[in-house]
Amino acid sequence: MKAPALVSGCLFLGLSACATSGPEFRGAVSALEDEYGVQASHWSALAPLVRVAGPAGVSGFDAATLETLPARAHEAPDAAALRIQKALGVAWKLVVRASSRAEGEWTLVYANPSDGKWRLMVFTLDDETLTVAHLALDPAHLREWLEEKVGHT
Predict the structure, then answer these.
(1) How far apart are CA 11 and CA 93, in angstroms?
(2) CB under 8 Å to 85, separation ≥6 — which residues?
(3) For the whole prediction, is pTM greater than 0.70?
(4) Which of 6, 35, 62, 71 has its CA 20 to 30 A from that of 105?
(5) Highest mean pLDDT, choosing among 15-19, 95-99, 125-129, 146-150
(6) If you average pLDDT over every residue of the chain, what do you get?
(7) pLDDT band at 52, cuts 50/70/90?
(8) Max alpha carbon distance in the chain (Å)?
């Protein structure tokens, strides 16, 4: 299972906004650092680039990667999902959960509709890298983008 289209789309949309590392993002990344005993690399250096690129409607983006994870990270997303949910809080709902036991890969997508925006947090494990992305989307712009890319909503 390679990164699903949803993850790719979220990351593409995210590249259109300023990097804004909020407390929930930092909390989730910190929880995963604790879970796997590794230090995350943050992509905040992309802030100047993301300010000028991409579609309208994305008001926040941040990403981090955790590399050289222990083998247990690939077994199942259960431990990660528990830590992530605790770090994010009850306002965040798990909306996508996909995994491949054969390949040791998984994806979790959480959503939080707040303040008139859809906030998404995407976690995807592929090979030895866990990528975390956070973005905030204006629902009207998201609908327009989906209609353009998919043809209907």
Answers:
(1) 19
(2) 92, 94, 110
(3) yes
(4) 62
(5) 95-99
(6) 78
(7) low
(8) 44
* Residues 135 and 119 sit within 8 Å (Cβ to Cβ): yes
Buried b (16+ CB within 10 A) or exposed e, 54-85: bbebbbbbbbbebeebeeebbeebeebbebbb
Residues 55 and 145: their CA atoms lie apart, in Å, by 8
Provide the CA 102 distance to its chain's centre, in angstroms. 23
What does the chain look like in DSSP terms, one character per residue? -PPPHHHHHHHHHHTTS-B---HHHHHHHHHHHHHHT-PPEE-GGGHHHHHHSS-TTEEEEEEEEEES--THHHH-SHHHHHHHHHHH-TT-EEEEEEEETTTTEEEEEEEEEETTEEEEEEEEEETTEEEEEEEEE-HHHHHHHHHHHHS--
Residue labelled with tokens 């959480």: 110
In angstroms, the CA 12 to CA 4 distance is 12
pLDDT of residue 124: 94
- The residues with which 60 forms a beta bridge, in sequence order, are 136
pLDDT at 6: 41
**Could you tell me which residue, 137 or 151, shows the higher pLDDT?**
137
